[in-house]
Every structure is written in structure tokens, then in C-alpha cells.
Amino acid sequence: MLEIRMIDKEDLGSVSGFISQMNISEESHIGYCGKDKNEIAKYMVNDISDVKYTDSFVVAYEGNKLVGVLGFDADLDDNSAEIWGPFILREKWNIVYEMWKKMAEMLPKKIDSLEMFPNVKNTRVCQLSSSLSFKKYSDETILIFQGTNSHELKSTSVEELSPEYFVDMVQLHDEAFPNTYYNGQQIIKRLDDHKKVFIITNEGQLCGYIYVEAEPEFGEASIEFFAVEKSERGNGIGAQLLTGALKWLFTFEGMDSITLCVNSANVNAINLYKKVGFEHLHDLYTFTKNIGQK
């Protein structure tokens, strides 16, 4: 007998394992949900914070067997939510609309926009987004740098962001990425031993920056944002920033790989990443939907 209900804490282990198994396959892959069971569980508990995962996820069980998971990660400051899934066994896909309805009832009234980030080969979620009146916002490419190639990185000189460059870094970031998930001030607030901004300067002027996050516990890291001042483009600043950030990230023991996401139309950036040593991993779509005030 099928049961669709809100998640509870006792479900966390089975849910994180289920998402991990589903997200390994490109046919059910969602871009921001991870592939490591323990990392997924840690994220759900610690980082899905504006609305706790126990109030933002639904599960579907057939008897004692977990057959579906669907949830959202809300950003109440931005009035938006990222959709996790749907992760549903292929043979049970017909329950997707029932699960969606249950999850939608849990969305806070403040939420006025939704985002889905499926792999292009995840045709079921791509078709679902269309049937739910989502619009395709962009095509994205995921690239990966394998730790086994880190010895090939050249020496370069970058410096860690200091307070005297906060204003310039925020301005450059917000101009380069005006509608993204972290603005410049949010990045500065996130900085710690595992989250760093590196910069290159010239005679007291900021030339460019790069923001990276390390997850040494799981042997992973990501390059979140980087930008170069227009006047400095073509001078190799981007390659220096990338190389310097990679060299720092690989100082963590057990760092296996580093990923980044770039708009598929940004051919120059993709070529730069590949020149430094990144390889193609996934292609994804970003779908968005304005749901207005309820």
C-alpha cells in the first residue's frame, strides 16, 4: 500500500541513501543534490535551514520500501526555493503529481519563485517541469578537475581576500552575477577555513577574484564564482586565479576532485577551464517558475 507523507528524522538515513543512489545515474540526476550519502545527510540537517528538512521534504513508501523523495531548499531572504528531485523509482513515476501536490502545500507563503536543475538526460524531470509550466532559464555545464592531475598545476601567485578589498570584490561579484544564489556580502559572511576568496591585485587595484568551497570530509570541493575586471581580461588573470585556488584546495588531505558549473554558452570560460585541466562531467538545464504570492 502506497503512503506519501512528510519526512521525519528517522527517515534521514534511508532518504540520503536513496538520493545518493538515484543521483549517480544521469537519467535521475539533479545538479545540486550530491552523490555521497553522508554528505547529503549532513547538508539536509545543517544547510537546509530557512525551512528545516523535516518541514520541506515528502517521502513515498510502498510497505517498508522507499520509492520516492521530493523536497525544497528555501531561501526566505530571496523568496525562492530550489527543488530537490523528484527522486522516484522509474516504475513508480506515476505518483509524481501526488508527491508534488503534497510538497507544494508545504511551501511558505513568502516563496514566489521555484528552480529545478535536472540533468539534460533526466527526461522525466525535464518533461515534468514543462507540464508544471516551468520555463527553461539556462543551459549549464558541469566540469571536474581530478585530484590525480593536481601535480600538473603550475606555480602561481594569488592572495587571500583582505578587508581592504571587500568593497571592490562585492562590486565586481554583484556586477558579474547580478541574480545568483549568493551576493557579494553573503560570500564574505560565509568565509571560514574551508570557504575562501582569493584575489589578484595590481598597484592596489583589484584585478579579479575567485570564491571556492572545500568539503575535505568528503574529498570534494567546488569553484563557486570567479570574475576578472574588464580592463584586465586577456592578461591571464583567470588562469592564475583558477590555478591558485586549485593548488589551495588540493592542500586538503584526501581531496579527490573539484567541480564547477558554467553557462554552456560561455565557450571562452569553458575553454579556459579545460586549458587549466578541467574535464566535462554533466550538462544540465535550469528551469524556473514564478508562483506569485499565495
From TrEMBL:
- Domain of life, per UniProt, equals Bacteria
* Every N-acetyltransferase domain range: 156-292
PROSITE patterns in alphabetical order: GNAT
One Pfam family name is Acetyltransf_1
Show the InterPro entries listed in the entry: Acyl_CoA_acyltransferase (IPR016181), GNAT_dom (IPR000182)
What is this protein's record name? Answer: Ribosomal protein S18 acetylase RimI-like enzyme
Organism whose genome encodes this protein: Alkalibacillus salilacus
Q: What is the lineage of its organism?
A: Bacteria, Bacillati, Bacillota, Bacilli, Bacillales
